[in-house]
Known about the structure:
CATH class of the largest domain: Alpha Beta
Helix content: 25-40%
Shape: globular
Number of domains: 3
Number of helices: 16
Largest sheet: 8 strands, mixed
Radius of gyration: 22 Å
Oligomer: single chain
Low-confidence stretches: 142-146
Number of strands: 15
Amino acid sequence: MTTKQSPQALNDTVIKNGYCVGCGACAIPERSPFKMVMDDYGQYQSVLKNSDIFATTQSDYEKICPFGSGALNEDEIAKQHFSETCKHNDQVGYYSGVFAGHVSEGDFRKQGSSGGMGSWVLNELLSKGLVDYVVHVKSENADVNLHNLPFKYQVSATLDETQKGGKSRYYPIELSEVLKEVKNKPGRYVVVGLPCFIKSIRLLQAQEPILAERIRYCVGLVCGHLKSAHYAQSLAWQMGITPQELEGIDFRAKDPSQPANRYNTYVKGHSAEKVVLTNQLFGTDWGAGAFKYKACDFCDDVFAETADIALGDAWLPEYVQDGNGTNVVVTRNQDVQQLITNALAEGRLAMDDLPVEKAVQSQDAGLRHRRIGIIDRLAFEAEAGHWVPAKRIKMTHRANPGLENEKQRLRVKMRELSHESFNLAKVRSDINVYVKSMMPVYTKYKRLGVSLKSRLKSKLKRLFYGN
């Protein structure tokens, strides 16, 4: 009886309370009562389409949703897959190898957002015969250039097809369509995804033997948060290309003459193309969280802890000055580890071994937001009497004091206001409606950040030098 009630339970908890991240896992089982739709905020969300929920399915939906009450957490899933061969770190999860570097061979690094390791790993798995197909995000029409909208999950079988999925896509996507294709098409697959998406795949594999058999590897992306479609539109609109005109975007166009964190945004409209330094555009401060899914504020996985390999940017002083890009890499699967080891010996990769603490340092801001700030955000929801998903951090932890607590409140406010004000801007055909609505909150947030840094410096000075 519990299994047959789970669609309604998932709807009443995760979906109705805004914690759906749009992964599409709940829409994949046979006769699923859920479907994925793009909402008014430009986010994929699950909708309970079938009122006859008790007769449609035998799947347990709360156990396949990454935010569902019955789902295993990241520690529990990863332990099943990696505990026998890996060490464990509280921030990174399980790991067998930790590296920083880039691809030396071919154009992988040039065509990637960072060091080129994403496309390289997928190509190695294909070329070494470990998989037959790659499931990844690229332009809907594979014959057009890399930047064209919309983006969606697709299946690739060749290096040429795979490389069309290179680069970061800060854009909403969902898995239900492509995983139905995986179920219908025999073969061995590797899937690329954000931490919550990889988690949903692991949860699906526990209930769907065909996915457990066919999906052989998961490549995870180190994640800050997922953006709505309006994020891309807001950047283009500031560059003079309206949402109606926008045809394509490159969120991270490299400039090798600049540090890796000073990249450009390229947009293409019906009759114009523009390139602007990204940090000159409003809303690109990742910490502020404009156009973020609410679910992302309640995820505590940065390093894609359930994936066989996690790839991100090496935001470390010794690497960030290289504008060509450098990856931080965490391996957990022995096959993938061996691919990297062999390529290093052959000179096809330029990689340094990293202490796991350096990997943590490379994602310091994201980890603080996900592992410390989440205490406040859970408290805000609980204080309002709202349902919250179960997390690895316990609600018994004390909220952060004073200014830190206020910083989280402002981040929540900016997340909510960005969605609302941009919709109003579209109604009024004026991007300034969005910018002017957000600016007072963002200004207060930045001033608060200065105050926090000043207090931290004073605290450190007293610690090391006395009063």
